[in-house]
Write a structure and sequence with these properties.
five-stranded antiparallel beta sheet, 2 domains, about 170 residues, alpha+beta, 3 helices, elongated
Length: about 170
Amino acid sequence: MKRLLLGVALLVFGGLLAFGGGRMVYRARASEHWPVARGSVLSSKVETLRSRRAVSFRPHVRYSYTVGAEGYTSETIAFGALDTGNVQEANDYVRRFPAGAPVELRYSPEDPSLACIECGQAGMADYVVTVGGGALMLFAALGLVDVLGSQLRARRRQRTLAPRGEAPHQATRG
C-alpha cells in the first residue's frame, strides 16, 4: 500500500512540475504574438535572494500600462527565470529599465493583466522543470503499473492455491 501511495504522490508531483514548467514555456512562446502596448516603468531594482547554499540576484521591474480604458501594473519581465549569480548582470539588466522610462510591452488579449517586457523567452530552467516533471510522471506511472501488476498476480496465485469451496487463508502477523 505504501508503494502505491508513493507512486501516486510522485505522479501528482511530476504532473504539477510538468504543468508549471510547461505553462511558462507556453506563455513565453505565445507572448511573442500578443498585442503591443506602451507603458511606463514605475520602479526598477535588483532583489537579493539568499538560500543556505547560494546567493542569487533577480532584476525586478514594475511597470504600468493601459489597454482600452483600463490601467494595469505588472512585474513580469519575461516568463523565463532571470535569476543570476552575478550581481553585475542583474544590475545591467535593471539599468535598461530605469524608473520613469517608457517601455514597450506585450499583453495577453484574453487577460490584459498578463503582460511581459521581454516576450518570447523561456528560460532553460523552465524546460528542465517541464521535462523533469514529465520524466517523473513516466517513471511513477511505470512503477504504479508494476505495483498493481504484482498485486494482481499475487491475488491470482492465491485463488489457484486455495482448495475449491474454501476462501484463501490470509497470512497473519504476530
